[in-house]
Each structure stands twice: as C-alpha cells, then as structure tokens.
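Lecture notes, unit on binding sites. The following record was shown on slide 14. It pairs a sequence with coenzyme A.
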Amino acid sequence: MIFGIGVDVLEAARVKKVHDRYGEHFVERLLLPGERAQLDKTKRKERFLAMRFAAKEAIVKAMGTGFAHGVWIRDVGVVQNSWGRPEVVYSPRGEKVRRKLGIGSGFVTLTDEAGLIVAVAVLEAAEKPARPVVDARRKTVRRKSERKPGTRRK
Ligand SMILES: CC(C)(COP(=O)(O)OP(=O)(O)OC[C@H]1O[C@@H](n2cnc3c(N)ncnc32)[C@H](O)[C@@H]1OP(=O)(O)O)[C@@H](O)C(=O)NCCC(=O)NCCS
C-alpha cells in the first residue's frame, strides 16, 4: 500500500547560489553521512547537491511532514546503491518519525534537463502484523493468520 507520493522541481542555479555563498556550511547542513561520502567521489558537485536537495523535498512531501514535525533537511536523503539506483535513507531522528508514521520502503527517481532538477518519491506503508482477534469461547488471543481454515468466527 502506498503511504504517500512527493514531487519537486528545482532550478539547479538556486542551489549553486546558496552553495557559492555558504560553501561547506551548506553542505554540512544538507547532507547525511552516506550522501556526503558520495559527494566526495562525484565530479559534478553542484548537480549532485541540487539533486539531493530536490530528493529531500520530494521525500518530505511523500511523508506528509514537509520540513517540520521532527523532520529537517538532514533527516532524510538518498544514497545510490551499487547499480546507481537512489535509495531512501534516514537520520536516527528521521528514522523515528518514519516508524511513528508507519512508513515502509521508499523509492526516489531523479532527472535533470535544461537546468531543472525533477525528483519524485514514493513511500510505501509499513507492513503491519496481523491484527490480534479475541476468541471469546477459548478466552485466548490469537492472530488471524493462526486460525485454521474453515474455522471462521460467527
Ligand atoms: C513541503 C515543502 C518542502 C514545500 O516546499 P516549497 O519548495 O516551498 O514548495 P513547492 O512548490 O515545492 O511545494 C509546495 C506544495 O507542496 C505541498 N505540500 C505542502 N506541505 C506539504 C506537506 N506537509 N506534505 C506534502 N505536501 C505538502 C502542497 O501541495 C504545496 O502546494 P501549495 O503551496 O499550493 O499548497 C515545505 O513545506 C517546506 O518545508 N519548505 C522548506 C523549504 C526550504 O527550507 N527551503 C530552503 C531553500 S535553500
């Protein structure tokens, strides 16, 4: 089940401006450690920062929190796996919010063209354990999945 979707369009030049002005301080405020490690290896650093910024906005929209409710810019992010696919990651604080809201796996896709960055995020709802049901006759609590077939309660 889908928990939420989010999208962001960003002019890469805006992020470049902020980076030019604040430099390392901006990078430290923006990136999670895993993202930071990837930045150090990438050649197109401005593009990387803009894409991470857009991804974060798309993720917080999908979470429904925006940059509020316990989620700031360094609490969510994306790190590419060995195939290059961006995967959603959280800080310990972001992880707490993720669990509290019942968010499961996350997916992000990114692209850029003509100076614009587009990020789309999809978050799945976490899988819930089967709902406990009370068997009044036996006075026991068992999970739906434990019931024998053909023994539906009336
Ligand atoms: C959600 C958020 C990230 C939107 O960011 P934005 O860049 O200001 O605006 P966008 O045009 O990308 O998106 C706005 C839309 O997001 C959606 N949105 C707003 N709050 C949302 C939320 N909590 N959950 C999901 N979607 C939300 C709405 O559809 C909104 O449209 P509206 O303004 O017509 O109601 C905003 O709440 C926020 O926290 N912004 C902080 C941005 C920031 O710190 N910028 C620093 C620049 S260096």
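Take-home: Residues 8, 18, 57, 60-61, 64-67 surround coenzyme A (CB under 6 Å).
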